[in-house]
Design goal:
2 helices, 64 residues
Amino acid sequence: MAGKRDSEITVVVPKLTRNEARYLRDEMIKNTRKIAPGARGSIAVGKKENFESIMHRCVNGLLD
């Protein structure tokens, strides 16, 4: 897949069990490595009440 790398993806999937969330996280990581091996990203699993702090950590991690 050739082209300019100027796109990103943001995903929020609520109402998951911890196991479902971990599985989706692992599959996204595995498929990202296969589809876009040069891509850099951050992914986190956590509780709804911690969403804001989780998102800040993810964004800050990408900016470092």
